[in-house]
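User: Here's a protein and a ligand (zinc ion). What would the complex look like?
Assistant: Let me lay out the input and then the predicted complex.
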Amino acid sequence: MAQAHPSLFTHGSGADPAPVGSQRVPVLLPMPFAGPFDYKAPASMALQPGDIVSVPLGNRRETGVVWDTHNTLPPDLARPPSGKTVADNRLRSVAERLELPPLNAELRQFVDWVAAYTLSPPGMVLAMTLRLHMKGSTPTPATGWIVQPPPAELRLTPARQKVLALMADGVARTTTDIASAAGVSAGVVKGLADAGALRTILLEPERPFAQPDPLHHPPVLEGAQKEAATALRQSVNARCFSVTLLEGVTGSGKTEIYLEAIAACLEQGQQALVLLPEIALSAQWMDRFTRRFGVRPAVWHSEIGQKARRLTWLGAADGSARVVVGARSALFLPFCNPGLIIVDEEHESLFKQEEGVIYNARDMAVLRGRLAGFPVVVVSATPSLETLANAEAGRYQRLVLPTRHGGASLPQTHLLDMRAAPPPRGLFLSPQLVEDIASTLAREEQAMLFLNRRGYAPLTLCRTCGHRMECPHCTAWLVEHRNRHVLSCHYCDHTEPMPAVCPTCKSEDSLTAIGPGIERITEEARQLFPDARILVMSSDTLGGPAATAEAVAKIARREVDLIIGTQIVAKGWHFPHLTLVGIVDADLGLGGADLRAGERTIQLLHQVAGRAGRASTPGRVVLQSYTPEHPVMQALLSGDFDQFMEQEAEQRRPGFWPPYGRLAALIISADTPQAADEAAAQFGRTAPYGEGIQVLGPAPAPLAILRGRHRRRLLLRTWRSIAVQPILHRWLGLVQVSRHVRVEVDVDPVSFL
Ligand code: ADP
Ligand code: ZN
Ligand code: ZN
C-alpha cells in the first residue's frame, strides 16, 4: 500500500476544534490510502460531506470528496483505527469546491461498506465512483452566441450578413452550429463577436437523455408472466429493500417482465439501473428496451467514450438519466434517486471483478439496495446456488416463469457418447453431429457449434522430443492462432511467431497442434460443408460491440447457415432461425479444482442450448461428451436443474463450502519463488484457528506463475455465522511482508486460479 505523507495522515478526525474562521474536513481521495485525510477550508466555503473538492497532495492537486467524520460500519466490518491526527496548524487547505453534484450520504456509506467488506482501501472504491470520468476537471458548460444591436460602424461583408440573418431569430447557437448553418467559417463568427455584434451566453447544459415512457409499448401478459410482473411492480411500489429472484427457462419472458419493474420505477419518478454481465454485447437488449420505452437508455461500460461517460455520470447524479444499463462498474454511479437495480444473468462470474477492488457486483448491488432502501431483482435461467440458498432461506422472494413464451418448446437434448462413436482421427465432430448439421442445413435452418476455446489449438507439442510450447511468463500453454501465425498466452500479453523448428531439439515439421480451438473446428466444418455460409463469433473475430451487433443482425437476417463460436454466442441472443446447437466439448469446464465447476458448466451449456428453437420450429441440442454419466451431463439431458442444484447443495453443506460457509482467499505473489514461499509460510504459521475456522494452504496457485510473478494461495473457510473480515484484519496485521511481496485479499472468491 502506498505511504501517505505523515503530516497528511489522519483517521477518525473531527474531535479537534477547527481553527476559528476555518473548518476542518476529512477528504477521501481516490487512492489506496487507509482513510480520508484532514484538510482545512475557509468557513465561507461551507463544505458539506459529499462535496467534490480539489485539494493539494504533495505538489499535485487531486480531486476528492468531503467525507463523513463518523462512518456507520457494523462492528464486524469496522477497521482497526490507524494513523494519528494532524495538528490544526499543519493542515493544508482545500483549494476549491468543484461545480459538481455532491455524492449523497447513501453512496458514501456504500463506498465505506464495500471497502470494508472487500478489505480494500476506501479510496479505491471511491475511485470507481470518481476517477475514470472526472480526472479533476469540471465539465465546462457549452457557450453560444446571440445577437445584440450592432455598433453603427460594423462592416457588413456578405458572410457577416448571412450570419446576422440566421441569428435574427434570437436563438442562441454555438460557433460550430452558426458556421455550418450559415455556410461561413468560424472566423466570421469570431469577427462579428469581436466587432460587438454577437455576445456570448451559457447554453443550457446538454440534456442528452430522452425520457423513457412507461406507457410506450407495454406487453400483453397472462398467467405466470402476469403474476410475476404484478409481484415485481408491488416490490418497486413498496419503496423499500427487498430482493427478488426472477427465474425462468430461456425465452420465458424474464426480460419482458423485468422491463415492467422498470416501468413501475419510472412511474414513481425514480431511477433504475440494469447490470448486464457484458454490456458490449448488448445491441439486441438496447433494441428491446427502445421498443418498450420509446427511447434508448443511458449506457455505462468501459468502451463508451469520455464524453458519453461524463454525460451518463452527470445524468445519474442529477436524475436526468432515468434508466442506466451498464456493466458491473455502473453500480458505483452516483444515482440521486435510485429505485431499482436489476442484475440480469445473476449467475455470471463476469460480475466478479478480479483486479483492484475485488468485488462481486451482484452481491454489492444487494448491499446498495439494502443501504438505500430499494428493491433489487436478480434474474437467471440457472440461478447460482448462493441465490437459491437465499431464496430457500426466505431472504429472497422467488418468482418462476415455467414455460417459454408463445408456446415455443425447449430444445430436445441428446448426449453423444464420444467413446462409443468417436470422430475420425485428428477431427472433433462425431459422425452423428455431422449428420445432424447436414440435415439442418438441408432444411435451410441454422446450426451452431459451440466451443469455449479461442484459437486453433490449446497446446503445441513437439512429436520428436515432447517439448510443450509454454508461456515464458505464466504457468500456461501457448495457444496457437493459425490465422495470425502466432502462439499467444491467454493469461498475459505474450505473443510469439509460430516457430519453424522445435526450440529444444530443432526438429523441423515436428510441432503438432493438440486439441481443438474454434479455428480448428471452423477448418473442419469448412471441409465438411463447403457450401455453408459460416460465421465465426469470438473476441478474435469480432472487433467490438458494433461488429458483434452486425454479426447478430446477419444471423437474424438469415445470411448465415452455420455459426461457430465461443461463449459470446451464449449471451441472451434471440436467433429465430437457429434450430440445432452442437456442443463440441461438453466436458471442457469440468476439470480443475474449482468448487463451482459443475454449476458453471451447467449454466453455460444451458445458456448456449437456450439459443436453439426460440421461434416456432423446435430446437435440438447435441452434447459431445466423454463422460456422459457425469451428473452435469445427466442434468442437461433431463433438464432437471433443481435436482442437480439440490445435489450440489448436499455436497457443499457438510464441508461448509459456500453458500453454507464463507470463504476468503489470500493470494501472495512475488518476483521469486523463494520470496513467495517465505511470505506464504509466514501466513501459514500465523493462520487463524478456532471452532468453525479453518485455513487451507499455503499451496502454489494453479496459475503458479502469472506475468512473471510467483503465486501462492491460502484459503480461509468459516462457518456462515462467522464473519471473515475481522479474522482477516487480525491475520494481515500479524504478518510483515517485504515490499516486493503483494498480498491480495479475495472475499467470496469465484476464481481459484
Ligand atoms: P428471457 O429473458 O427469459 O430469455 P425474453 O424476455 O427474451 O425471455 O422473451 C423471449 C421472447 O418472447 C422475446 O422475443 C420476447 O419479446 C417475447 N415475449 C416474451 N413475453 C412476451 C409477451 N408477453 N408478449 C410478447 N412477446 C413476449
Ligand atoms: Zn522437439
Ligand atoms: Zn503468459
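Summary: The CA atoms of residues 181 and 597 lie 61 Å apart.
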